[in-house]
Amino acid sequence: LLALTAFICIETIMECSPCEGLYFFEFVSCSALVVTGALLLLFSLNLHTRIPQINWNLTDLVNTGLSTFFFFIASVVLAALNHKTGAEIAAVVFGFLATAVFAVNAAVAVQRWRLSRRQQSRQSSDYIRARSESREVVHRPEIQRLDA
């Protein structure tokens, strides 16, 4: 919601003389809104369970990490190059708020990713142990060779 609000604020600006900072902020806010919205839709409808080949915890971590980084850069650039209009100031404020929320979400995503890695390594070690135990040959004296 903060990315959407920042995008709406930046879209209300009618004129700018150095527009590079504004365009960069517009690109970052729109991109974060679209990608995060798509992931939110996938997770809300449980569609991610139909594609188990993708590591969704890592995907969420990468999305939130990149969104945090680029929102911070775009907000700093827009803060440095703005003309102190109400819409630009509001966009900068919502940009920094979105940065903070994405950073918190990135921290949560790191914890979920680490937890999923631990569970995967535990499952793979259980699988390896089960396979090695099933291959062990037990010497049973009741089974004798028929060669004699």
UniProtKB/TrEMBL annotation:
Signal peptide: none annotated. The chain crosses the membrane at residues 22-43, 64-83, 89-110. It is a multi-pass membrane protein. Keywords: Membrane, Transmembrane, Transmembrane helix. Its main location: membrane. GO terms for cellular component: membrane. This is CKLF4 protein. Residues 1-114 form the MARVEL domain. PROSITE patterns: MARVEL. It is found in: Membrane. PANTHER family: CKLF-LIKE MARVEL TRANSMEMBRANE DOMAIN-CONTAINING PROTEIN 4 (PTHR22776:SF29), MARVEL-CONTAINING POTENTIAL LIPID RAFT-ASSOCIATED PROTEIN (PTHR22776).
